[in-house]
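2024-03-11 09:14:02 INFO worker-7 job=invfold-0412 stage=load source=structure_tokens
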């Protein structure tokens, strides 16, 4: 008999995950089963009601399949084992359902395959109150608590298929398009951060936006913020309209204008706050109240405001979309999109579209986003601090005409108050005008740290002109943005270096010659002015000389190693730099190995010469490019 344990072990048992392992494992045997059964019974009940047939077992009060699994109270025929198992489930997971390894009949009560949900079940975080603070919330997350090996990081399930229990039963996963453990982990953490009922990961931000638009049917109308991302404008005006969806643009910062624009056909209001790229602020709570009063859904593209700053679902939005390529990645190394929903009914439709249209995110990208989330709070906090410094500098510069920024000095007091009521920061993206398209072009081209590229939210600082880049797909006559507008995405570099780079670019754009200080601070990742390692001989032609070695011993007569100094073309060399040549010794008489050694070293020298010439050629070509 084991020794009796004290009260401290009872406390340990009640508060330690390892002690609850057995109950957890038992509970997880029913992954997906409960929800799938409930959904099938509900559908069967609806069919029976429509056909005038008998109601389902659950409607009759009889024993349903889910009741058999969980041991319903009204079931007098449940076995002792079933009741005990039900108790263990409830003790292990409370009132929630989170199982992983169930076996579920492929055919139940003559229902169709399509009655099965198309995504693995997961917790509903809509009402979850996390005791962790935002910085910890991004880091403290276990994507695979059921993994028997308990990895520190979520594994990549790089597989397209999963072996099923049998030909007549389904497991938790069957095909990665429909579900994958790595994607489930990402979607669970995103839902947790956004306080969503469920979140879904897509192959790109545009795939996520397209899925939201697929919620509409022919004849439905969507009201869209007039200052919208160029890719979304293209999707609406060149794709959705061909599916019979009516698109109307409206100023969503004006609630009265939105109210007047709503028609009986309006089903969805889609907006950005701040908008891209003019940083216009919409009252999300006001829009949500207005939309719901008319039976309309509100969708918010919150790419500019990641969940560490803003959670639109908590102020009434029904759908939140992110281009995860931006802040969720943070390193500009993967592409993805996210759709987060507040209601389970929307979750089922979005999941169906994700599976039916094959737009889900691949496992490896899911892993990269999971890794990016861990540093999101740190990155965004640092970038916001830098953005404040950059904004202060630009606001005081005489060549900057208008600032667009959801922070001090970047918008009017009313808009700033609305923004701070629904967000906890100003973000790190800002726009400004210079009054001259040519000046703006010269400015972007003169930046050295700010990279000229589309997108934002990276650790690196970026700049672009939306009129000709990110929003170029919008016809000129439909654009609502100034042609000279410059958009900056501020990264996590030292703010002093960023301000110095912007000051240099402004001087160059104005036609002022760079100062000596500017030249000394120039940073070129090619480092052409530095010596290279290893150094190789580059001459006009290889010349091999021999020396008499009559008095030399065989050990002293071995050829010298090829010289190792890289020499650039003569025009780029100092006059005193000599051109070294490979030298071989004359073999000692009678030494039969010397010709072979000399021949081998001659080939080696030729190879090194060829490598040096190739390096020189590549450098010349890179300079010409």
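2024-03-11 09:14:09 INFO worker-7 stage=emit residues=625
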């Amino acid at each position: 008999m084991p020794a009796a344990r004290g009260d401290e072990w009872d406390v340990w048992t009640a508060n330690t995950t390892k002690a609850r392992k057995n109950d957890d494992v038992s509970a997880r045997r029913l992954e997906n089963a409960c929800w799938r059964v409930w959904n099938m019974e509900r559908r069967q009940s609806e069919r029976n009601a429509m056909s005038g047939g008998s109601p389902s077992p659950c409607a009759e009060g009889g024993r349903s399949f889910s009741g058999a699994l969980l041991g319903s109270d009204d079931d007098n025929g449940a076995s002792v084992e079933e009741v005990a198992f039900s108790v263990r489930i409830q003790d292990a997971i409370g009132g929630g359902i989170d199982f992983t390894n169930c076996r579920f009949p492929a055919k139940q009560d003559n229902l169709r395959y399509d009655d099965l949900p198309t995504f693995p079940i997961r917790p509903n975080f809509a009402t979850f109150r996390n005791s962790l603070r935002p910085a910890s919330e991004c880091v403290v997350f276990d994507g695979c608590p059921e993994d028997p090996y308990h990895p520190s990081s979520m594994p990549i399930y790089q597989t397209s298929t999963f072996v099923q229990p049998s030909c007549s039963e389904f497991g938790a996963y069957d095909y990665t398009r429909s579900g994958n453990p790595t994607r489930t982990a990402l979607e669970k953490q995103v839902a947790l951060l956004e306080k969503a009922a469920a979140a879904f990961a897509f192959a790109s931000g545009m795939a996520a936006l397209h899925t939201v638009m697929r919620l509409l049917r022919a004849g439905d109308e969507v009201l869209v913020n007039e200052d919208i991302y160029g890719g979304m404008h293209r999707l609406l005006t060149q794709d959705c309209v061909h599916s019979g969806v009516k698109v109307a643009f409206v100023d969503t910062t004006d609630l009265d204008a939105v109210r007047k624009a709503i028609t009986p056909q309006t089903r969805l209001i889609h907006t950005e706050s701040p908008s891209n790229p003019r940083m216009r602020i919409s009252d999300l709570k006001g829009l949500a109240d207005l939309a719901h009063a008319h039976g309309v859904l509100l969708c918010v593209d919150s790419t500019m405001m990641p969940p560490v700053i803003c959670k639109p679902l908590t102020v009434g939005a029904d759908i939140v979309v992110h281009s995860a390529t931006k802040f969720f990645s943070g390193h500009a190394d993967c592409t993805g999109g996210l759709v987060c929903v507040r209601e389970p009914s929307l979750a089922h439709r979005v999941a169906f579209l994700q599976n039916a249209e094959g737009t889900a995110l691949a496992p490896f990208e899911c892993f990269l986003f999971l890794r990016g989330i861990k540093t999101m709070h740190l990155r965004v906090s640092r970038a916001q601090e830098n953005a404040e410094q950059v904004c202060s500098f630009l606001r005081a510069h005489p060549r900057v005409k208008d600032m667009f920024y959801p922070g001090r000095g970047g918008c009017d007091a009313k808009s700033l108050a609305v923004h701070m009521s629904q967000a906890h920061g100003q973000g790190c993206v800002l726009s400004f005008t210079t009054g001259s398209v040519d000046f703006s072009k010269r400015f972007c081209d003169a930046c050295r740290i700010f990279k000229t590229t589309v997108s934002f939210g990276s650790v690196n600082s970026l700049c672009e002109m939306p009129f000709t880049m990110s929003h170029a797909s919008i016809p000129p006559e439909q654009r609502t943005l100034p042609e000279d507008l410059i958009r900056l995405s501020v990264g996590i570099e030292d703010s002093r270096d960023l301000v110095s780079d912007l000051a240099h670019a402004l001087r160059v754009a104005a036609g002022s010659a760079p100062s000596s200080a500017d030249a000394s601070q120039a940073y070129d990742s090619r480092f052409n002015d530095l010596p290279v390692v290893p150094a190789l001989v580059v001459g006009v032609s290889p010349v091999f000389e021999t020396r008499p070695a009559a008095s030399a011993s065989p050990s002293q007569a071995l050829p010298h190693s090829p010289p190792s100094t890289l020499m650039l073309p003569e025009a780029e060399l100092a006059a005193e730099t000599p051109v070294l040549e490979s030298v071989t010794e004359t073999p000692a008489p009678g030494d039969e190995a010397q010709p072979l050694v000399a021949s081998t070293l001659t080939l080696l020298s030729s190879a090194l010469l060829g490598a040096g010439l190739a390096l020189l050629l590549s450098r010349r070509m890179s300079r010409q490019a």
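2024-03-11 09:14:09 INFO worker-7 stage=report msg="DSSP finds 20 helices and 14 strands in the chain."
2024-03-11 09:14:10 INFO worker-7 job finished
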